[in-house]
Amino acid sequence: MKKMNRNSEEYFDALINFELEKYGMTVAKLKEEHPDGKIDGVEWFQHYTFDSADEWRAWKKRCRDFTLKECTPRMSAPYFERAWPMFNLSYGLKYNFPLDDLK
């Protein structure tokens, strides 16, 4: 199986699709149904939410495992951990739980 280039749009779409799965949504479907990126007047990443810290952690683990095993160029686990906060800030869904739950 060919590894996915982690600098590609396909890679970013895959990680975002992981978080949208529970809503039956994908990046492609989102772009088609909401070309302006808004749902009910708010940005898609504020409309859809993580409902618990465990749900957020599961998304992060899935993204980490996918990135480390299925992508090229290779990324080390420590590098992923350093890069993760920016990705989460840029593409993560709104938290619908107390931030203290992430500690």
Structure, explained:
The protein contains 5 helices and 6 strands. The chain is mainly alpha-helical. 54% of the residues lie in helices and 12% in strands. It starts with a strand and ends in an 8-residue tail after the last strand. Helix 4 packs across helix 5. Strand 2 (38-39) and strand 3 form a beta hairpin. The chain has one domain (4-102). The protein is globular, with a radius of gyration of 14 Å.
By secondary-structure content and strand pairing, the structural class works out as mainly alpha
Low-confidence stretches: none
Strand order of the largest sheet: 1-5
How many domains would you count in the coordinates?
Answer: 1
Total helical segments: 5
Radius of gyration: 14 Å
Give the mean pLDDT: 95
- Tell me the distance between the termini: 37 Å
Q: What is the N-to-C order of secondary-structure elements (H for helix, E for strand)? A: EHHEEHEHEHE
Q: How large is the share of residues in beta strands?
A: 5-15%
In short:
It contains 5 helices and 6 strands, in the order βααββαβαβαβ.
Descriptive tags:
two-stranded parallel ribbon; 12% strand; globular; 103 residues; two-stranded antiparallel ribbon; 6 strands; mainly alpha
Write the layout of secondary structure elements.
Layout lengths: L3 E2 L3 H12 L6 H7 L4 E2 L2 E2 H4 L1 E2 L2 H18 E2 L4 H15 L2 E2 L8
Parallel strand pairs: 1-5, 4-6
Antiparallel strand pairs: 2-3
Helix pairs in contact: 4-5
